[in-house]
Specification:
Blueprint: E1 20-22, E2 26-28, E3 33-34, E4 38-42, E5 47-48, E6 52-56, E7 74-87, E8 97-104, E9 111-122, E10 135-137, H1 145-154, E11 165-168, E12 173-181, E13 190-213, H2 223-232, E14 258-262, E15 265-269, E16 279-280, E17 287-292, E18 308-313, E19 320-321, E20 328-337, E21 343-350, E22 359-361, E23 368-379, E24 385-395, E25 402-408, E26 412-421, E27 430-436
Parallel strand pairs: 2-17, 4-7, 5-7, 15-20, 16-20
Antiparallel strand pairs: 1-22, 3-15, 4-14, 6-13, 7-13, 8-12, 8-13, 9-11, 9-13, 10-24, 14-18, 17-27, 18-19, 20-26, 21-25, 21-27, 23-24, 23-26
């Protein structure tokens, strides 16, 4: 069954009553920063109830709805993220909604596009929202299409139905994606598709994501059908809730993203200071944490907003890429034990309440705030390199389980790497904690 919770617009909600457990530990801003790689970010409207343009970076020339085209060219490295949901609108309309992603070469030279990694999954039947334990050690388990897609991309996979390369002739277009979101025979008649691609183009290209129903014989739209929709269509309606303008007080509606965000990787060496190459472990019985995917009204008092900025966007969509869906966090922790005794050090990811101090709920709330794959690298007690994957499912206010426990002798070091891609169907922020017993 498709998870209805992901249909809710991202809204700041912090006033839930529950017994709280306060954790007294230091919270630090995350070092590093987002890179500059542009991301075609198609997530609004999330629930698609009609045909139309979801996101177009084409120019406005010869287009019926000029406001639907953002005139942005991609070249070199860029990513594509699309996350949309379809449902049956009437009892008799059983047509299948298709997601199309069109790529166009506007130049007078041949353009070659390499598809480095790619994955696209439906919630039904590809990746249903199943109940999973809070932590499972596996690289092949998932709950929901966002979890499965980002797990594939984290492991640098490319689905077989995606070619490794496209050759686009001058002035021509090709379909990167032409995939269904079927709802017929589903209970409820609701389905979603998450898609992520990492690409490299040797020339400038335009992109557009579009929504169109199959024909009366349930055939998928042709390239010509998609091109006509791009030229003659308008933005898909109904629209999502409009976002709260920046710097407004009170309840925040973050909104859904539709535009080009900047940044697909946050790489950081977590060290004691800018001129250090070690991360000194906490004293016994103490811990410190780093914010992950922090955003407006959710920085844990660090004042650090990690949200990817928007290079272009539609006026009724999010001002920033709140949640950083699809952004890879690649964090290294060069841990150092300066003491003259052996210490036990633990590393974990958690989902505390979204407020200034670190607080957890003794009984986590029912809402799932994070589900996705995490990769851990470290050296074991025999100094043998280890690579592990954990699938996490964390509810609101949940303290995470230990991802790794290290026995560190006096004056020893151990380099730990934590990598994950922030998944759709998750709600930020989270924290990364290092604790010494």
């Amino acid at each position: 069954m498709f998870d209805l919770f992901c249909l809710l617009p991202i809204i700041d909600t912090t006033s839930f009553f529950a017994q709280q457990n306060v954790q007294v530990n230091e919270i630090r801003p995350l070092s590093g920063e987002l890179n500059k790689v542009p991301v075609f970010n198609s997530n609004s409207p999330e629930l698609v109830l009609g045909e139309g343009i979801l996101l177009s970076t084409f120019n406005k020339e010869k287009k019926a709805d000029q406001n639907a085209h953002l005139n942005f060219l991609f070249q070199g490295k860029f990513d594509i993220f699309a996350h949309h949901v379809a449902k049956k609108t009437t009892e008799t309309d059983l047509r299948t909604l298709y997601l199309g992603i069109l790529i166009n070469n506007p130049t007078n030279k041949i353009v070659t596009v390499n598809i480095l990694q790619a994955a696209s999954y439906l919630s039904q039947p590809d990746a249903p929202f199943i109940e999973l334990p809070s932590q499972v050690e596996s690289n092949n388990i998932y709950s929901g299409p966002g979890s499965r897609v980002m797990g594939d991309i984290l492991q640098e996979k490319r689905q077989q139905n995606f070619p490794n390369q496209l050759t686009i002739l001058p002035g021509e277009s090709q379909m990167l994606v032409n995939l269904p979101i079927p709802v017929q025979d589903l209970i409820p008649p609701l389905n979603g598709r998450s898609t992520y691609l990492k690409l490299f183009s040797d020339g400038p290209v335009y992109l557009a994501s579009l929504a169109k129903y199959s024909d009366q014989n349930d055939n998928s739209p042709s390239l010509e059908d998609w091109e006509k929709l791009l030229e003659n269509g308008s933005l898909s309606h109904p629209r999502d809730l409009a976002p709260t303008p920046p710097n407004n007080s009170g309840k925040i509606i973050y909104g859904r993203v539709s535009g080009v965000s900047q940044g697909n990787l946050w790489k950081a060496d977590l060290v004691d200071s800018s001129n250090s190459n070690i991360l000194t472990i906490p004293n016994s019985g103490e811990a410190f944490s780093y914010g992950l995917s922090t955003l407006i009204a959710g920085t844990f008092a660090t004042n650090q907003i990690q949200t990817a900025p928007m290079l272009v966007r539609y006026p009724d969509t999010a001002y920033s890429s709140h949640g950083n869906y699809g952004v890879k966090y690649s964090l290294t922790l060069p841990l150092f034990n300066p003491k003259n005794e052996t210490k036990t050090v633990k590393v974990r990811i958690s989902t505390p309440l979204k407020q200034d101090k670190i607080e957890f709920l003794e009984t986590p709330g029912p809402q799932i705030f994070f589900r996705g794959l995490v990769q851990i690298k470290y050296n074991d007690q025999q100094n043998i390199p280890r690579l592990k994957y954990f699938h996490l499912v964390q509810k609101r206010g949940e303290k995470g389980q230990d991802l790794v426990t290290l026995i560190m002798p006096p004056d020893s070091r151990n380099l730990v790497s934590v990598d994950f891609i922030y998944p759709p169907d998750a709600t930020p922020p989270q924290i990364l904690t290092i604790e010494t017993e």
